[in-house]
Amino acid sequence: MEKVFCSDTWKKIFAENGLKTFEDFYHRIQKKRINSNHRRNVSIFQLKIDGVDKNFFLKRFRHCHLKDTIFAFLNTGKFCTQAAFEWSNIKLLEKNNIGAPHCVCFGEQLRLGFERKSFIITEELKGQCLTDFIAQNWGQMTGEEKENLIKSLGNEIKKIHNSWISLPDLYVWHIFISRENEEYTFSFIDLNRMKRHVTNPNEKMEDLGRLHYSMIDKYFDEPIRRKLIETYAGKEKPEKIEKLVRRVKKYSKKFSARRKTKPNY
Predict the structure, then answer these.
(1) What is the DSSP string of 92-145?
(2) For 225-242, how does the pLDDT look when each residue is reduced to its tens digit (9 = 90+)?
(3) Could you give all domains of the chain from N- to C-terminal order, each with its CATH number?
């Protein structure tokens, strides 16, 4: 069984571009692959809307592992495809006023009730990947500007955790940034491992540890990393902040030891 889910407005736009069936979306879009592994890949493609070319991202899932199905069930309370799970994760972030890609369509192919393939399509995010923003601007930013950015990011992560959400893929390269009048806003991508109803503080510390690990020495010195954690901690007592710093560093070292190659941007 194959299904494609989108609003009537988007259904009309896709049809005008020759996209109607699951196979059209999954196989026949003229796209450029930008990231892939055995079970999923991400591509960029363009659609003509009102005579203007507009960028979209297509994320395709295949060979869904049983553990992924169980993970989605534990988070949602129902069996769903990987694309449907990521779609619902995006909607949950939007509900909590947390930046995420705008989803316009998803589709799924089932065999005997189980996922065989699925896909999700999102609009191109406004702003810039944080790695690119840092590489292009960090050297020209003042200390105050850097601190304002880091404090804004720390507050945003706190808002995510206060919503009982964990992002196990919280790395610098999975964050998009927009700046207007020295105010920063953030959006988060790669959400198929997002966790809900998170009450275990260790999972939140792991999120921070991954982010700390991805903040490379080329740009982020120890005081600026510490500022992120202090901002996240808010009005906690100094001894609690020190404990938090130690825990985040511990997780950061653990993730660094696991990786054969170090991040570079």
Answers:
(1) HHHHTT-B-PPEEEEEEEEETTEEEEEEEEEEPPSSEEHHHHHHHHGGGS-HHH
(2) 999 999 999 999 999 999
(3) 2-123 (3.30.200), 128-258 (1.10.510.10)
